[in-house]
Amino acid sequence: MPSGVDGSGRSGVLNGSAPSTSARSQQPVLVLNANFEPLNVCDMRRAVSLLMTGKARLVEDGRGRIHSARATYPRPSVIKLEHMVRRPRPRVKLSKREVFRRDEYTCQYCGKHTSHLTIDHVIPRHRGGGHRWDNLVAACPTCNRRKGGRTHTEAGMPLKRRPAEPAATAEYLFDRYLHDFDEWEKYVNGW
Fold this sequence. Notes:
The chain has 6 helices and 8 strands; from the N terminus they run H-E-E-H-E-E-E-E-H-E-E-H-H-H. By secondary structure, the chain is α+β, with helices and mostly antiparallel strands. The protein starts with 20 loop residues before the first helix and ends with a helix.
């Protein structure tokens, strides 16, 4: 069989050099509100559906084309909704990953920067401390064991920074995508 040709006779790239059709349909697309405020990220399939139904319009493409039996469409990178969507003020979801991200992958007791961290309750749960942004910090395993079931003041371990819920700015919410999609930066950093 010739190089680059599969059993169906279609030419293609071997060894995973090009993204598969399903991978391309999963590529993220930035969705802007009618006032260009970043709303969320959806996959390519949802974005094309919004474009085809007239609920959104293309703002940035640059990813090539989608070919169907009847037409060719640009593959969107950024779309804008045609009508303004009202939504509640966004909040960062409380999760282990977001606590580490907020604390910049740094132990809040010793200041060690590492990817091997644990979550520590500043006021231990058995003493009434809740599972809330203002009571959770990133801690290296050594500091977490040393602190044990005590408060940080009882253990003599002052915090590097007071824990608080991070502001849900567009830059904070979408920054994990910005290094891959440079064209998003002007829409995200403007908010």
